[in-house]
Design brief:
This protein has 22 helices and 24 strands. The chain is α+β, with helices and mostly antiparallel strands. Residues 1-50 and 334-359 have low confidence and may be disordered. Helices cover 38% and strands 19% of the residues. Helix 4 (79-88) packs parallel to helix 7 (116-124) and helix 6 (106-112) runs antiparallel to helix 7.
Amino acid sequence: KMTQQMRDLQLAQARKPPGPSSPNAAKRLYRNLSGKFRVNYTSFDEGSLVGRGEKEKLRKSYLFQSNAALFEAVELQDLDRVQELLKHYSPEELDLNTPNSEGLLPLDIAIMTNNAPIARALLQAGAKESPHFVSLESRSLHLSTLVREAEQRVNELMAQVVNEAPNADCSEKEKQLKAWEWRFRLYKRMKAGFEHARVPDAPSSVHLSVASSSSLQVTFWEPLSVNSAVVTKYKVEWSCSPTFSPLLGEAMIDKLKELHFTIQGLVSGTAYHVRVSAYNMKGWGPPQASTPPFAIPSNWREYDGRAPRRRGQAEALDHLLGQVKTVHQHCICHEPCKNQPQSRKHSVSKSLKHLFHPGSKFLKTLKRGLYLTAIFYKDDNILVTHEDQIPVVEIDDTYSCLLMQDFLWFTKVSCMWDEILWLRQCVTVSQSSCSCILQTRFKMLLAISQMQGLLGIQDLGQVFFEPIKDKQGNILIVTLKEVKTNQTFESVRWVPICKLQTSRKSVSSPEEPTALDTLLISVQDKLAYHQRSSHALSPGLYLGYLKLCSAVDQIRVLVPERLPNILCHVKIRSNPNISREEWEWLQKMASVEEPVPTEPEADTSQNPLFQELQVAIKELMTLVNIPLQEAKDFRLYSQEVLDFGDQVSFLLLLPPSDDVCTAPGQNNPYTPRSGFLTLPLQIFELGEER
């Protein structure tokens, strides 16, 4: 009776008819669809269709076939086909959560036949259980009805086949009999699976951590038992009482791609207890209390009430820049630019006028001097001039030794590509009153303006961390930018990088390549550096290693090649927050001036952060090729946690104070393995900001 009611409901709601009723029908359907799984229904020749109605009819027919194929794949326990369908169709296209004429969903069939791999694949795609099964009794009754009706149909067909003489109708009845026998066995297997199943065990582990001053993060794992039915959802509960009475809140987790949940809107300083329960078709299992048994929402800043370091800094800098612009609008140094007599204008160097002449072009070859080149790339293509040259403009033909201060100043200018015209107005062009440094920097601004004008774009990208020099006295400052959209440039075109490298004729010897040849040879390395320097870390707490080395004119910092905008590091955990209790423990360690612990102690062995730090320190020392015994003299930076947004934070590991920065000529006995480089400190700071 219940089954008949469900069928009537299906007809009233214009539900789809059932899919193929036998394995052979399913296999035929698979063969028919096998060539279509990898294309969308719009790949049909729509020019042969007449009107939108026929197109929509074809679309619905095609999607119905895919839905029927999914049911049959689940019934036949064909995991590969299920995964293929889920990959090529959306849940909406598959009607993943629309019951068939028997009132069943694909997930119902998977869990009642105890096919855990298919059930998990369906759950991760967003599959639900049938809403008709409101209780254990209703599910049991429905399965019994399906089995009874299938058995009755088998008996009827068997009697007809036995009593009728062999003919075409008899052959068709035999096919129907085989199909119903197969379905009868399926329903019996589903009924047995339901009857033998039991409620799930408790989750195997529940970990509780402090996510912020107002939230806790709960991470849990599936029950260990393999005898119970597939778990389809979880329940997270929290309370201020260890007895969970009263209950403050609960949340249902039915999206099982990642088994974690963040409890929001909690009160800082209040202890919360958390537990998690698992659910399957037999009901809710026992709850599993968290480890630790409770947690208190907090943040390390609450230890001494300090405000975030960068709060309001961006706004303050914007305000300061606005004030500088306002002052310079009325600065006396602008008057000659605005009200110069005609004779004064003629005193400007002709070479400077030539930069902005319509006939200005990119350079083909380098003479002795300082130059700027801009590398724009998209996939495996690079932007070149119509002469198949990388865009190059001259900065100064009399400048043969680039001072590090000038280069670092140029890198700072790269943060203000849109302000070049204003910066030029702030620098006087008077040769008699300007210092040599100011003249060089003014020429840099002119070269930037020329490059922007010739390319028709303001943003020239990121400056490579060191200029390219050759023995002929050429110095090349390189900027890099990846183009991800169909951006329009002037006077240039795209060519494959490999084609440019093979077609360019070198004008230098292999022993003494020019700066342009060196650039072309190493362009892939520079593009790889640029791409890696824009990668972001995944959310979490990291342990960073700070190691500096000094030269005559700069300080450099050790970074990994795979992520040059970040210090050498390892991940401590996925939760970036340091709680107040954890920070108090770190301060206690620092106050007694003890070295970083590498072996467990009795009073700290139960501290999760201590255990996490132990693992991270060992991993980091191996990474930078430092013997573990040397780490006993290292220290954790205890003044603050370095926060990079809300999702990434760092604890710093420092060598002994005398070894933080290696002086020129000083021997460093522990050289990191390959995969590291040293960047000028200012370049690293700019990359970190980006």
